[in-house]
Amino acid sequence: MGTQIMLAQISGGVVAAIAVGAVLVGAILGFLAARFVAAQSVGKAREEARTLIDRAKDEARNEAEKIRLDAEKSRLEARKKAEEEIDKARAEVKEDERRLAKREDLFDRKEETLTLKEQSLSRQADQLKAKEEKIA
Fold it and tell me: Rounded to an integer, what distance in angstroms lies between the CA atom of residue 14 and that of residue 20?
């Protein structure tokens, strides 16, 4: 019986040692597994952060380009409007010049007509004067 007790004590000690070893191995494996999962989570989080940053940069570039294009479009529309107004003003000036030239021509013709009438009246006055001198 003594050997059985001793064997029981030895096997109890071995079982306890195995149990302690198993707990230690489990704790180490658990720690390593937790670190592995944490490392993967951190890596995944970093990758997601990079993706979000890249996406945000792309969106910012796209928005900046849209703003630039809108500004360019507005500038071109303003230029077109200004050119149309200039063309309209030029057309008005040209029309005014045409009317003035027409009036000028009319005044020139009236002046010629008046000059001819004046010459005619002067001749008639000279003729009347000559007739008066003959009569007198």
Answer: 10
Greatest alpha-carbon span in the chain: 196
- pLDDT band at 22; cut points 50, 70, 90: confident
**pLDDT tens digits along 81-136:** 999 999 999 999 999 999 999 999 999 999 999 999 999 999 998 998 888 888 86
* Look-up of token digits 């910012």: 60
- The torsion angles phi and psi of 108, rounded to 5 degrees, stand at -60, -45
Select from 54, 52, 56 the least CA-distant residue to 44: 52
Interior/surface letters 38-50, b for 16+ CB within 10 angstroms, e for the rest: eeeeeeeeeeeee
Give the dihedral of Cα atoms 80, 86, 88, 94; nearest 10 deg: -150
Tokens representing 38 are: 């944490």
